[in-house]
């Protein structure tokens, strides 16, 4: 009974520990893709600066608060290459002190690669990784931290690709810009004056 009590206490301490650095998070948390709760502080080019909000248990939490620091976790949107427009969108969408959930997928240096979830109403949550791609504000990228041949990797990668495909079909964000560029390029290449100049240039080369 005493040993069982110590095990329960140890788990409680770990669940109520406030993580202030990516290196503080136990390896098994990352390997099991645990979801943690946090509060947004600000957004930078490197990622989201988030304060971890652990489970609160009376007595244990009050003791831990005495020695826990206020440092923030650096969280990146896994599998997403963010554009400058995407960063602006995040800064407008996420307000300081807003609560989020982040699912651990990997750890790179001092940053955490995560799926980030935001509540939209009582029964709806939105995955920011997918929403960024759906809006055409980023491109899919390799999911760092997960084995490339794992089942989870391809499950998540397919989700992200589907989100990106929606933006592509609807010409949103970067896909709208690229579509407009292609139209201009095609218009220029089909212009009669441009075609005449090309023919003249080819004629000159044949006599040089």
Automatic annotation (TrEMBL):
- Kindly give the membrane topology term recorded for this protein: Single-pass membrane protein
What is the species listed in this Swiss-Prot or TrEMBL entry?
Answer: Apteryx owenii (Little spotted kiwi)
The record's keywords, sorted A to Z, are: Acetylation, Membrane, Transmembrane, Transmembrane helix
Protein name (Swiss-Prot/TrEMBL): Chromosome 3 open reading frame 33
What the entry lists under InterPro entries is as follows: C3orf33-like, SNase_OB-fold_sf
Write down the superkingdom of origin: Eukaryota
Just give the chief location class: membrane
Entry-linked Gene3D superfamilies: 2.40.50.90
Q: List all membrane-crossing ranges.
A: none
Its subcellular locations are:
Membrane
């Amino acid at each position: 009974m005493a040993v069982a009590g110590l095990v329960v206490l140890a788990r409680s301490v770990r669940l109520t520990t406030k993580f202030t650095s990516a290196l503080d998070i136990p390896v098994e948390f990352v390997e099991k893709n645990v979801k943690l709760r946090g509060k947004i502080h600000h957004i930078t080019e490197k990622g989201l600066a988030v304060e971890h909000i652990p489970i609160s248990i009376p007595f244990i939490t009050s003791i831990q608060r005495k020695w826990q620091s206020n440092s923030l976790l650096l969280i990146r949107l896994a599998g997403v290459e963010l554009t400058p427009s995407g960063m602006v969108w995040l800064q407008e969408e996420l307000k300081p002190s807003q609560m989020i959930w982040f699912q651990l997928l990997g750890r790179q240096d001092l940053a955490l690669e995560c799926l980030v979830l935001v509540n939209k109403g009582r029964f709806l949550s939105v995955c920011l990784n997918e929403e960024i791609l759906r809006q055409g504000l980023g491109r899919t990228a390799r999911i760092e931290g997960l084995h490339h041949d794992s089942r989870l990797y391809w499950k998540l990668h397919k989700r992200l690709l589907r989100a990106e495909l929606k933006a592509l079909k609807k010409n949103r964000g970067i896909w709208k810009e690229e579509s407009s560029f292609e139209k201009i390029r095609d218009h220029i290449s089909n212009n009669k004056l441009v075609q005449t100049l090309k023919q003249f240039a080819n004629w000159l080369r044949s006599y040089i």
